[in-house]
Amino acid sequence: MKEPYAPTAPSRSALKRQAHQVEEVVQGLLNLGGSQLERLQWDQPLRAELDLARKTPQHGARKRQIKHLSALLRRDFDALESARTVLEESTGAHRVQVQDFHLLEDLRERLCQEQSRADALQEASQRYPACDEALLEQLARSYSETGDRRPYREIFRHLRTAAEKTPR
C-alpha cells in the first residue's frame, strides 16, 4: 500500500514556476550595472554567458539567451544563490535611497506649509543636525509669500546636503 504522505516529485506547474523565477533573476541581472555584476561569484563559463546575453539585442535571440542562461543556473545552485543575493542587495539599496528621497520631499512640503512649519523645522534639526534652521525658515517663508519655485528647490538642496553630512 502507498504511504499517504510520501514525498512526491514537484508537478510540472511547479517546475515551470521555478524556471520562470530563475528567468526573472537572469532578467534582473541583465538590468544591473557592471560594478554590481562584479560582486557575482561565478566561474568563467557562466560569466561569459551573462556577457553574451547582455550584448544580445532585445529580440528573440536575447530571449533564447536568457532561457539558456536560466537553464545553466538551475543546474548550479550556488551561482543562482549568488545572483539572488546580488539582486537583493542592489534593489534593497535602491529602495533605501527612494525612501530617503521621499522623506526629504515630505519634509520640504511640510516646511512650505505655515501650519506645519514649526514641527517640520524641529524634525529637520533633530534628524539632520547639519541643517541651518534659520535658512530653512527664511526659504520656506520666501516660498510661502512669493510662490517662487527657487526657494522651494533650495530647501530640498539644503535638506539633501544636511542628510548627506549626517551619519546613518
UniProtKB/TrEMBL annotation:
A Pfam family this chain is assigned to:
DarP
The record's annotation in InterPro entries points to: DarP, DarP_sf
What does the record give under GO molecular function? rRNA binding
Q: Which GO terms describe its biological process?
A: ribosome biogenesis
Q: Which SUPFAM superfamilies does the annotation name? A: PSPTO4464-like
List the Gene3D superfamilies.
PSPTO4464-like domains
Give GO cellular component annotations, separated by semicolons.
Answer: cytosol
Q: Keywords, A to Z?
A: Cytoplasm, Ribosome biogenesis, RNA-binding, rRNA-binding
Kindly provide the name given to this protein in its UniProt entry: DUF615 domain-containing protein
Species whose genome carries this gene = Geoalkalibacter subterraneus
